[in-house]
Amino acid sequence: MTAVISLRAVADALEEQDDQCGAYLNPVSGEILTVSHEEDRMLEEGYDEESLPQWQVDTLNRVREFEQNTVLPLPNAFDIHEWQIMDNFAEEQENDGTRNILSQALHGSGAFRCFKNAIYQQGIEEAWFRFRRKALEAIAREWLEEHHLPYN
Prior knowledge:
Oligomer: single chain
Low-confidence stretches: none
Helix content: 55-70%
Number of domains: 2
Mean pLDDT: 93
């Protein structure tokens, strides 16, 4: 039996991911667990419980238990294409000046940092956060539908 998955929870997990961790969904329970690459490595290679703090042993045991169930990896940071989301936001700007500033910020080194600085300088950070959230929800919705998982 498959749980009804929370679209909001999947979008939240997508938002929290970075290149240091991934998230997995248990489609039976609907639970999402974020796992660091370090935790994955430790589980694959083994670890000495006595050399770790108890909280880390508890976390690794929880990850192992979770991964023993049938879990699906959520789209990761590379699947999300954050740069494309930023470019789409820039292109949607009605003000030519703002659109040009954001587009220029996206090209060259430090594009992510430059873009974020530009949205703050333009005073459009709230619009950016709403736009990004909608984009992540669309990715989550598409992923859930691709896996034929019910959601709300």
